[in-house]
Specification:
With 148 residues, the chain is α+β, with helices and mostly antiparallel strands. The protein is 18% helix and 25% strand. The chain is globular.
Length: 148
Amino acid sequence: MLLGLAGFRRCSGWGQGPVRAGVRSWSGAMPRRGKEKCKDSVKPPVPSGPVVTDKSGALTIAVHAKPGSKQNAITDVTTEAVGVAIAAPPSEGEANAELCRYLSKVLEVKKSEVVLDKGGKSREKVVKILVSMTPDEVLEKLKKEAAS
């Protein structure tokens, strides 16, 4: 048997395998080649609020819906989402339709220009606004409604 060639060594004891390749570090991890991440790469900025412009140029609003409330209201505006209380039950899409209707009233746009994009069966929703407005204008209107 050729044991002394190419950095191979024989394991001591029976049943531990015939031959192991080279000595590894004490943790057993080998360095990976070509897997390093470039530290100089620039990441896109993380959205700073609940109202952002998506890739297609439309505005999106992250909404935390609270269906079954007594009346429609903007409850809070945080960095993660806009809290909206909806006076419709969460069944058969009634709350989703009421959410779009209420946001169109608050933002002063047509009902057809406010579309539910994601979250049809979840409380965490994304609503798309199909008009040319800036995120600051939308946030200002939402905060004004929340204060009233």
